[in-house]
C-alpha cells in the first residue's frame, strides 16, 4: 500500500512561506463574545501562537506575520526534508493546539496550512500582498460593525457594503466619526514576530560575575511600516539580517 501515498514525495524549494488560516473562526468569535471589529484577547492569542511557532514548533522560521485569523511564516532552511505533507500537517496541528490553549476555547479549534514557495528577495512583495488584505479586512470590518450598530442585521449590513470602493468605505466610517487612518496600527497593518539581538545580563561561572551578553530574543512588533514602500522593504531587510536570514 506504500505506493498509494502518492503525495508523500512532493517537496518544496527554499525559501518558502507557510500560511496558516483559522477554520470557521467566525463561530469562535460568536461563541466567545469577542468584540467587533477587533478584539484584543483574540489578537493576543494569535500573536502568542505566532510566537510559539517561531520559538517552539521546530520550524525555526525567520519571520512571522499575522493579522485576523492568518499567520505567515518565512523559512529559509530545509525542515522535514521540505516534504509538503509533513510541513502542512505539523504546522497546522501545532498552531491548532497552541491557539486552542492560548484562547482558552471550550472546544478544539483548527487551522489549515499551505506552502508558498518564493524566490529570495520576494518576502517584501509577499507581505505587501497580505498587508493589503489586512487593510481590506480593516475597512470592511469597521464599516460592517458601524452599520450593524444602527440596527441592521449582519446580512443587511453586508448587502449595503457590497460593491463599495475603499474611498466610499472611508467616507462611511468618517460619517460615523471614525477616522480609519487613526485606528491602532496593528489593526491596519498587522503584527510581526521576529528575532532581534539584544544585550542582556548573563553570568560568567568562571569569574562568578554578571556580564553583558548578546542574545537573540523574540520581538513582537505592532507598529509596522507599509511593506510595499522602499522604507518597508528596508525595514524588513534589517530585521531579517538581525535574525540571520536573507529576505
From TrEMBL:
Q: Per the database record, which ranges form the tRNAHis guanylyltransferase catalytic domain?
A: 1-118
Q: What is its EC number?
A: 2.7.7.79
Residues covered by the Thg1 C-terminal domain = 123-201
- Keyword terms: GTP-binding, Magnesium, Metal-binding, Nucleotide-binding, Nucleotidyltransferase, Transferase, tRNA processing
Keyword Transport assigned to the entry: answer is: no
Look up the record and name the cofactor or cofactors this protein needs.
Answer: Mg(2+)
Q: Which InterPro entries match?
A: Thg1_C_dom, tRNAHis_GuaTrfase_cat, tRNAHis_GuaTrfase_Thg1, tRNAHis_GuaTrfase_Thg1_sf
**Among its keywords, does the record have Metal-binding?**
yes
One Pfam family named in its UniProt record: Thg1C
Q: Which family does it belong to?
A: Belongs to the tRNA(His) guanylyltransferase family.
UniProt-recorded name of the protein: tRNA(His) guanylyltransferase
The organism is: Methanocorpusculum vombati
